[in-house]
Amino acid sequence: MPDTTSRSTPTSTSTVGSLPSSKEDNHWSSLKESGTLTGMRFLVFMYRTCGRRIFSAVMYPVAIYFVLFRTHQRQSSLTYFFNHYAYAPQEWSHKPNWVDVFKHFKAFAEVVLDKLLAWTIDIKEEEFAFTSPTIIDELMNDERGQLIIGSHFGNLEYCRGFMQRYKSKVINILVYDKHSSNFVEIMQKENQDSRVNVFQVDEFDISTMLILQEKISLGEWVFIAGDRVPLSGLQHTVDVDFLGEKAPLPIGPYLLAKALACPVKLMFAYRDQAMDNNIVFDVFPLTDKLTLSRKNKMADLQVYAQQFADKLQAHCVQAPYQWFNFYSFWHKS
Q1: What distances in angstroms separate CA 263 from CA 99, 135, 195, 249, 259, one per listed residue?
Q2: Is the Cβ–Cβ distance between 196 and 156 less than 8 Å?
Q3: Hey, where are the domains in the chain?
Q4: pLDDT tens digits along 7-23
Q5: Which of 91, 145, 186, 301 is the most exposed place for a label (fewest CB within 10 A)?
Q6: What CA–CA distance (Å, rounded) separates 254 from 34?
Q7: What is the pTM of this model?
């Protein structure tokens, strides 16, 4: 591993463990990758050459393609909106339909570009709308290592880019899937001075834990997603209430938090058109040190996962088109 105490380019991904031989057909990892490296480079080129307005116009036929030909993602999007509508009808002026699915895919295309731009353009600090300024200020001044649990809501790259650019934090990103390698390669090329390390992990073994514990001891931050079923399947999940239905969430982030014995935060970020397109930046302190009882371990894990689900749900209610989990998320009834 490279020395992350000095300024360096992101590491190449390192695989720990291996994919299980039998995965559920509707597991997110079995879905074909849609974005190619060439395609992502084209997005950046188009933005720099033509500007945001032309880029947005070109994304309309792309979104139409997804609605017409990506059956699984299309149905998953519609199921999400139906659950959202049933849970928070006050947020809707109509029953969700294919137009909303189209807007969902269109929003995702915009966010893919923004994920790249978060590391390459100068996003000023005043563009961030902090939901909890005091908590964020305390976090910025905390020299301890932190475990940050994020999600596929909005654009977490705003948070990571903000921390790295303005606060000189060293960021370590844990990813479960190989699909992120294209984004990592683009990020490496576009921002040679990034203090970011990306690790591809299929499971947490002893060597991985030792590496992460060292990074925490150095005051670095570790980011992990909390809204994807692990590659090992449902046996490593707990059920939570999310938008009025039962859904499985991984226990891995909380087991990792216990092993690292460090403060744990939940973090969300997205651009809000209702707030002059400012970036909503929300940090929620989950616990200063995660503990699990021997007798009620799974119950304790469920409590932590439900807190994460509640925060994610609150943001989804406010910005329904910003959650990008295009796979069968809820348990089938």
Answers
A1: 42, 13, 21, 20, 11
A2: no
A3: 124-322
A4: 333 333 333 333 233 34
A5: 91
A6: 30
A7: 0.84
